[in-house]
Amino acid sequence: MSSLSGSEPRIRVEDVSVTYRTSLESAPTFKSTVLRLGRREKVVREVEALKGVSFEVPEGQVLGVVGANGAGKSTLMRTVAGILPPNSGRVEVHGRVSTLLALGVGFNRKMTGRQNVVLGGLAAGLTRDQLADKYEEIVAFAELEEFMDLPMRTYSSGMYGRLGFSVAVNMDPDILLIDEALSVGDARFRRKSTNKMKELCGQARTIVLVSHALGTVRDLCDQAIWLDHGELRMWDEPDAVIDAYTDFLEVGQDAVTLEDV
Amino acid sequence: MPPREENEFTSERHVYEPHKIGLPPLRPYVRELWRRREFAREMARTNLRAQHFNTAFGQVWLVLNPLLLACVYFLLVYILRGAGSRGTDFFAHLLAGLFAYYFISDSIRLSVKSVTGGGRLILNTAFPRALLPLAGVITAFMRFLPTLVIYIPVHIVAKLPVDQHLLWLIPLILLMFVMAAGAGMLVSALQVYFRDVKNFLPYFLRVWLYASPVLYYADEVPEGLHWILYVNPLGGLLTAWSDVLIQGASPEPWAIGMAAAWAFGIFIAGGLFFVSREREFAVRL
After folding, report:
1. What CATH number has the domain bearing residue A117?
2. Per the domain annotation, does A173 fall within a domain?
3. Å from A247 to nearest chain B CA?
4. Reading across the β-sheet that carries A44-58, which strands appear in turn?
5. Chain A closest CA to B267's CA: distance in Å?
6. For residue B258, what pLDDT is reported?
């Protein structure tokens, strides 16, 4: 990190487009392919999720991402995390990335909490020693000491979310990508996670935060972008972006749009 | 700010550029793969624990199953071929061949659903996906090792030779591992595109067993059918395996040559197919 000067952005997204083909069949099979031979049925649909998006996030900045459902926010996060490759353009990321993405963290419900934390950490590239250091912290933060050796299917959804959040924030990442995951757990845990987020923001971590809770974005972020149908509509101060976004949606700014309930 | 350990990947630089169907740069890929090898080991251990491998009875069942199968096949061959022609050395051949064959087929069975079953992790974490089928192969290998121990008393009772030729087992097991890894990557990637691959597998694996020199010696194959041993990826490998264990001889050059060619051929084909497709898995699940 010391090798990076302040002017070098941590994340640089240059003219990135992502188009992917999804199969309309829930489970494509050899059998259905054979049966379909000769008939000209369309079974793949192209989705243009991102169209020429460019922005930069300098070190220590918190970037908020707002946009309607289906605007491409989650695709953007996956592209920055290196899970989905861009079809054109270029993404450059400096530093270790920790992700907390929308579809629930990479937990396997048949395995115990402990196995999931260990496997997730190893997949993310931690060594066993690093993992052993962080394990206690992760469990203590999630307040799940008695549950770590139970299979995760026995967890309540709040416990599930707490463990996911705790894993993501305790990995000591340089860059943290969070996709609508700040509202897990009960009121007490939410306060705790908001405090943790503020602490991380104060530690000059680079954070990209997707949230529909516009108050959180206003509160935590230094910059914000607004995505609409895969295009970057605006990249500015959070207040300006949120004002424009809420005007566009014609919902007005009341307590409901600013805070999630 | 808490003290943070500096290491090779805290200041890593990632660049993601389009290569949807093409290959990612292979050198960094392999380096990332190697750095996360612990993941594959831990995954294998977790799989085994789920199969109760860590309990005494689970282990007993694991070796009892192929042992009983060997008895069934021995009986079958004994009835079909008549008494007298088969002795304890044939039983040793049958057992060793079945254990080796089960290592390969277990690898394939355990890795076929590794990608489609690992959905959540694939959608949320960027890591070399080849670790998933490799974890299946490692699981199969950990199940294979105790069966080798079971083979030892049979080898001794059958009064088979114990000499330096047995050192050939090391490269042969390595070739099996390479072939299993290639086949595992191939089927697990195919399974993403055709979810019924796993339904075809049992038939395929059964035919493969019958086409391999396990229920018979390689030199009993009629002249006109000899091509089967060349076409079958396990033909050369299992011939060499039996030559070394049962005959106590060095494997014939054709056998070891075919074994190496098939093992590396499958590994390269399966590996390239898997790695060139793996960036697409996240949208196919």
Report:
1. 3.40.50.300
2. yes
3. 33
4. A44-58, A9-23, A88-94, B13-16
5. 23
6. 94
